[in-house]
Design a protein that fits this description.
Helices cover 42% and strands 10% of the residues. It has 309 residues and is an alpha/beta fold. The strands form 2 sheets. Strands 1-2-3-7-6 form a 5-stranded parallel sheet, sandwiched between helices. Strands 4-5 form a two-stranded antiparallel ribbon. α2 runs parallel beside α8.
């Protein structure tokens, strides 16, 4: 599809992710989706802005809230729905589900439900890239909750010490499940990352696809030249509950007004003309992918021990 400008391209990609996850919300009560889901609604601009300037040879290591990155990276939509349906035609043959998506053919390395666990994988891949002299950038994506973990700090230290070509991307939605950063952390995330000798950057407007792209693309360009690690924290907002498809204001840890403040600035809500321009095309693609998943076969008993190392 051709676009009039960069903004429309980024908008289209973000809207596509939003509508795909809205379809998941619609389907989830039917129990056709065979795993818990951690939705990216509200955070799409970060994934799209980060993935835009990456080459197919670059690798991205996501966390369990990884739908947006799989889709922004160019993952196959039919295989995506088949995977969350648990079908044999899924991108992980139905064995990964929502939290363990993988698409190595598009540089989307396996996600994991364990907080912070893919960060050292990214650092290891960056070390391999350096030793093998590959023209490759590695991206580690994680939430603010991962910065509470010891392996996160070990990974930043190791990457800085060994000068590895990895960009650390912290999606800060201010929440580890229901707990705000102010009650968990005595430090500011991107300022603390600088302690390890990393160039650090911050983007406040995580709802703005252009601002995210403008903040991240120079890091990619610099990393291609220097092959050195960098760090960026991007402020964002998770609209729905930590895991699941519902709003959770009744839990009492955040207010409606807090989320509405973000929604008032969200182009995927306020850009009515662009939504109308692209929505019909995207919804048709989604329906086709869902039908593919519905009609795909289940894994067989003989599949149980395949792909196991």
């Amino acid at each position: 599809m051709k676009f009039d400008n960069l903004y429309e391209e980024l908008f289209y990609k973000s809207l596509r992710i939003r509508l795909i996850e809205k379809k998941i919300i619609e389907l989830y009560p039917t129990d056709k989706i065979q795993s818990p889901v951690h939705l990216s609604i509200g955070q799409e601009a970060v994934a799209v802005g980060v993935c835009q300037e990456l080459k197919t040879t670059d690798l991205i290591f996501p966390n369990y809230r990884g739908h947006a990155y799989y889709l922004a990276r160019g993952g196959n939509l039919k295989e995506f729905f088949a995977e969350i349906y648990g079908k044999r035609t899924g991108c992980c043959r139905g064995k990964g589900g929502s939290m363990h998506l993988a698409g190595p053919e598009i540089g989307f390395m396996g996600a994991s439900a364990i907080v912070a666990s893919t960060i050292p994988h990214a650092v290891g891949a960056a070390m391999a890239a350096r030793k093998l002299k590959k023209d490759q950038i590695i991206i580690a994506v994680f939430g603010d909750g991962a910065t509470d973990e010891g392996v996160y700090h070990e990974s930043l230290n190791f990457a800085s010490l060994h000068k590895l070509p990895v960009i650390f991307v912290c999606e800060n939605n201010d929440l580890a499940v229901h707990t705000h950063t102010s009650t968990r952390q005595a430090y500011k995330i991107f300022e603390h990352a600088a302690v390890y000798g990393l160039p650090t950057h911050y983007c406040e407007e995580g709802y703005d696809i252009i601002k995210v792209h403008e903040a991240f693309s120079p890091l990619v360009a610099e990393a291609r030249i220097t092959k050195l690690p960098q760090y960026i924290e991007i402020k964002t907002c998770r609209y729905l509950e930590h895991v699941g498809v519902n709003e959770d204001y009744d839990a009492g840890y955040r207010s409606v007004s807090e989320i509405e403040e973000w929604k008032r600035k969200d182009p995927l809500i306020i850009e009515k003309e662009l939504i109308d321009k692209y929505q019909t095309t995207i919804l048709a693609e989604i329906e086709d992918a869902v039908m593919f998943a519905e009609n795909s076969p289940w894994p067989l008993l003989e599949d149980l021990l395949t792909d196991v190392i």
